[in-house]
């Protein structure tokens, strides 16, 4: 029986390891290394007094504060309140922006009618309108969910319109030449071709739902991660403040990874 080779590639991997798996391992290794460097700097710089530990708490103390908040149930309560607001605004934005974007992208008269209004509001930052939402809708949940809806709707809407308009005209002509009904044409050609661009907008909206949420919860909220960060800052509970920031960062990362997996699930035709 021939002996197995135990050589090592230039990347430091055994020669028997598939190239794809090797690239995946190398990418994961670089990401872990980058996080390790960040964690070391966060822990080391305050300990060495390079930065004032009063204002930048060492990572170990932040993690200890995060664990205490988790055990007390306070962190879960704030996280639950934030997730309900964020997901509600995000879901409403998807439900409203995708159909409207498909309509604008597919029907030219609708685009001509709505474009002036869209151009006006798309250039108005969501946070600039936060006082208006609070003034009109009050300090309750309605204003917070509405501002998240407003912020999330724009990337979804604009990417949906762009996705429909960027469909290859040859695909449309071919489908029409085969006698495909307009409804079937839209269902079988336009929508699948626009899905990748639509999901790009959805991923952007997912990030916006977290960013705008924090700002919205800093005004008149009684619970939520944004409220936790502001409350901790005002009471000089610096480790708790960083624990809230860290929680938001992890939630945003997990949310984005979930959307990436959904995008791959709905775009499987691209790899076939």
UniProtKB/TrEMBL annotation:
One of its GO terms (biological process) is transmembrane transport. The lineage of its organism: Bacteria, Bacillati, Actinomycetota, Actinomycetes, Streptosporangiales. GO terms for cellular component: plasma membrane. This is ABC transporter permease. The chain crosses the membrane at residues 87-108, 120-140, 147-165, 185-202, 209-229, 241-260. The keyword Transmembrane applies. Keywords: Cell membrane, Membrane, Transmembrane, Transmembrane helix, Transport. Signal peptide: none annotated.
């Amino acid at each position: 029986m021939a002996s197995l080779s135990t050589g090592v590639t230039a990347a430091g991997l055994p020669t028997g390891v598939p190239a794809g798996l090797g690239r995946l391992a190398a990418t994961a290794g670089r990401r872990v290394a980058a996080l390790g460097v960040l964690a070391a700097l966060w822990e080391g710089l305050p300990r060495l007094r390079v930065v004032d530990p009063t204002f930048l708490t060492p990572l170990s103390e932040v993690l200890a504060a995060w664990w205490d908040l988790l055990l007390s149930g306070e962190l879960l309560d704030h996280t639950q309140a934030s997730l309900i607001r964020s997901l509600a605004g995000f879901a409403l934005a998807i439900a409203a922006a995708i159909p409207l974007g498909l309509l604008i992208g597919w029907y030219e008269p609708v685009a001509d009618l709505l474009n002036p209004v869209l151009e006006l509001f798309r250039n108005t930052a969501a946070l600039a309108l936060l006082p208006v939402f609070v003034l009109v809708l009050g300090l309750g949940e309605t204003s917070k969910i509405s501002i998240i809806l407003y912020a999330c709707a724009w990337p979804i809407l604009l990417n949906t319109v762009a996705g429909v308009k960027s469909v290859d005209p040859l695909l449309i002509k071919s489908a029409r030449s085969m006698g495909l009904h307009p409804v079937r044409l839209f269902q079988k050609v336009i929508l699948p071709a626009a899905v990748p661009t639509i999901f790009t907008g959805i991923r952007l909206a997912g990030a916006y739902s977290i960013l705008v949420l924090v700002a919205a919860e800093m005004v008149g909220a009684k619970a939520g991660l944004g409220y936790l960060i502001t409350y901790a800052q005002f009471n000089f509970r610096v480790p708790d403040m960083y624990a809230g920031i860290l929680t938001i960062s992890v939630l945003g990362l997990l949310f984005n990874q979930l959307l990436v997996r959904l995008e791959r699930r709905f775009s499987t035709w691209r790899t076939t």
